[in-house]
Design brief:
The protein is an alpha/beta fold. It has one domain: Spore Coat Polysaccharide Biosynthesis Protein SpsA, Chain A, CATH 3.90.550.10. It contains seven helices and seven strands. A seven-stranded mixed beta sheet has the order 3-2-1-4-6-5-7, sandwiched between helices. Strand 1, helix 1 and strand 2 form a beta-alpha-beta unit. It is globular. It holds the Pfam family NTP_transf_3. Keywords: Magnesium, Transferase. It comes from Acidithiobacillus ferrivorans. InterPro entries: MobA-like_NTP_Trfase, Nucleotide-diphossugar_trans.
């Protein structure tokens, strides 16, 4: 099966004392990261890796699901180092999920998996009606290895820049009609403004 990698290596300074992975929807007893793991497993991703960095106890305190854990002891080198650590684990294609990403439903994620396997591509990701989006991101095993070979201190050691090097045929973007613009879930205000929309799709 294809693996899923949840990236939780950032400091999450803007979310306050509570890590954004620990937030809950109104009336829901499970944390945001528990919901992510459940959706990923429903979509057939296994194993699910959690890669932590700064203050990992804040994330692990609200995790009630069994996952494979990796810790980036060099988180100060930047988010690309956390991504590279996660990509060293899988032996096949992998889905990269930032900890605050809004995941599509499991059937759509299965479609993303099929698309990545059916074509000779490097990456696949969703796109909304405005042309935005980008997460979660499905990576082929070959391109994952290429990302791991990029020096972490290089000027282009960023996922968005590496994606910019791919052609349209190598990086396919699948439309998801229910995808909406909610690029950040950091502050309490951003979370409250998105909560009613999240309940409609989760």
């Amino acid at each position: 099966m294809d693996a899923a990698i949840i990236l939780a290596g950032g400091q999450s300074r803007r979310s306050g004392r509570q890590h954004k992975a620990c937030r809950r929807l109104h009336g829901d007893g499970w944390s945001w990261i528990d919901r992510q793991v459940d959706i990923l497993r429903q979509a057939g991703f296994a194993p699910v890796y959690l890669v932590t960095g700064y203050r990992p106890r804040r994330v692990l305190a609200c995790l009630h699901r069994r996952v494979m854990r990796r810790h980036n002891f060099r988180a100060r080198r930047g988010p690309f180092s956390t991504l590279q650590l996660g990509l060293h684990n899988p032996s096949g294609p992998a889905l990269v999920v930032p900890v605050d990403a809004i995941l599509p439903p499991a059937p759509w994620l299965r479609r993303l998996r099929r698309s990545a396997h059916a074509r000779n591509i490097a990456a696949a990701s969703p796109i909304d009606r405005w042309g935005g989006g980008g997460h979660p991101l499905m990576l082929s095993q070959c391109w994952s290895q290429s990302l791991c070979a990029v020096p972490v201190d290089a000027a282009d050691a960023r996922l968005d820049r590496q994606l910019g090097y791919l052609s349209a045929a190598e990086h396919i973007r699948l439309p998801w009609n229910h995808f909406f613009r909610c690029p950040r879930l950091n502050t309490r205000r951003e979370w409250r403004s998105a909560r009613h929309k999240l309940r409609a799709i989760l």
